[in-house]
């Protein structure tokens, strides 16, 4: 049975930093990509950052230069380092993994973690 567990959300002031973690556990055969999405109240879920199996990354324009996505392949864990946070970054952040594991093939979503940036 696979699991995707997120951690690291919280409340921070404008200009502060947070690091989100997302750990994929279980019997994993291969990972195509891992990424982060966010959904603010009244808005659609949007891509924040994604990292592909080969290491290439893609970022939303709104976070370029402030957020960095990385992975620890040995731990099947992805991280999102968020610096210079703004109130507009307030949202529930969801981890997404596209992988092949025991009993699973395709995309899988985490439960979400709240990030709140106060002004």
What labels describe this entry?
single chain, 119 residues, mainly beta, 7-stranded mixed beta sheet, globular
How would you explain this protein's 3D organization?
The chain is mainly beta. The chain has no helices and eleven strands. Strands 2, 4, 5, 6, 9, 10 and 11 form a seven-stranded mixed sheet that branches. It has a four-stranded antiparallel sheet with strand order 1-3-8-7, with no helix packed on it. Strand 9 and strand 10 form a beta hairpin. The relative contact order is 0.33.
Order of helices and strands: EEEEEEEEEEE
Mass-distribution shape: globular
**C-alpha Rg (nearest Å):** 14 Å
Low-confidence stretches: none
Write the layout of secondary structure elements.
Blueprint: E1 3-7, E2 10-13, E3 18-25, E4 28-39, E5 46-52, E6 57-59, E7 67-72, E8 77-82, E9 91-101, E10 104-109, E11 113-118
Parallel strand pairs: 2-11
Antiparallel strand pairs: 1-3, 3-8, 4-5, 4-9, 5-6, 7-8, 9-10, 9-11
Summarize the structure.
0% of the residues lie in helices and 62% in strands. With 119 residues, the protein is mainly β.
């Amino acid at each position: 049975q696979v699991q995707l567990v997120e951690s690291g959300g919280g409340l921070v002031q404008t200009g502060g930093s947070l690091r989100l973690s997302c750990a994929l556990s279980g019997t994993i055969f291969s990972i195509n990509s891992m990424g982060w999405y966010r959904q603010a109240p009244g808005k659609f879920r949007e891509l924040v950052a994604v990292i592909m199996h080969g290491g290439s990354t893609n970022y939303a324009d709104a976070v370029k230069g402030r957020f960095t996505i990385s992975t620890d392949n040995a731990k099947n864990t992805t991280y999102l380092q968020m610096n210079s946070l703004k109130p507009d970054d307030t949202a529930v952040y969801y981890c997404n993994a596209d992988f092949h594991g025991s009993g699973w093939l395709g995309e899988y979503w985490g439960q979400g973690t709240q990030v709140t940036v106060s002004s």
